[in-house]
Amino acid sequence: MSQLERIYAFHQKLKNNLFPNARTLAEEFELSRATAxxxxxxxxxxxxxxLAFDSSSNGYYYTDNNFALPFEDSPKLxxxxxxxxxxxxxxxxxxxxxxxxxxxxxxxxxxPGYERLMENVLCQWIEVESLDPxxxxxxxxxxxxxxxxxxxxxxxxxxxxxxxxxxxxLINYQGRWYLLAYCFLRxxxxxxxxxxxAQATCGEQLRNKTHPAPQSYLxxxxxxxxxxxxxxxxxxxxxxxxxxxxxxxxxxxxxxxxHADGIVLSLPVADDREIMMKxxxxxxxxxVLEPDSLRERIVKEASQIIMQNS
Length: 310
Hints:
By secondary structure, the protein is an alpha+beta fold. Helix content is about 35%, strand content about 25%.
């Protein structure tokens, strides 16, 4: 039983006005009196508990009943730990000894007795991709330690290549992992879909990041596809879609305006692909107002869907 768990149990007795003391603490946890006194001193001196001793009750009590331990009743921390564990699972890292040790250690800090935080927090993602843990570890090492990365990569059109990368940033977007890096094969910044990396090994140490990406590289336009803004899309959402979209954040420069039929969402777009998927997701409850080129592509795609399913 750890010291924090003993302190937590002692704290609960104080909150319940049971007047515990060093003797009761020592008997409950089979400690020496010296260890019990050290625990009580730690609670008072390090955790700043408002302890006082009542000689008539032969025990301690709190002079301030509103006192709480730093690790007590931490729903936000509990949620974040559950989310961290879930992300590790989805990335194929959940069974690594390091993750198990981290989860156990922090669960003791939050509230003793929680052996598995994920029993209390459920996080469900869709379209999640699992990665090879060894590849993921190599990429993490390269990013954190500023090392070059040698990878075997398969592009979206199935072309295979060997590349030397200067890794810059790990990105998790919609359940998929991406690596922003400078590619020495293309002599430019590229965004690599990590599920398409077949092999990754760390190379030489970089003293400084020699090819930092512009701050606007990923943030100028909507979605994961990079590039300069081509146009600003205006989309009318009606009915239940309007109620959902008005509370959603798609891009830092988006605007939402009221409309007689719902709301109009405006945002910068660099690539049609992802914005088309989002629009089609809402079916007849989404209508493209601008630009004409995007509306025409949506109409064409919808027509092809009808033909293929008729």
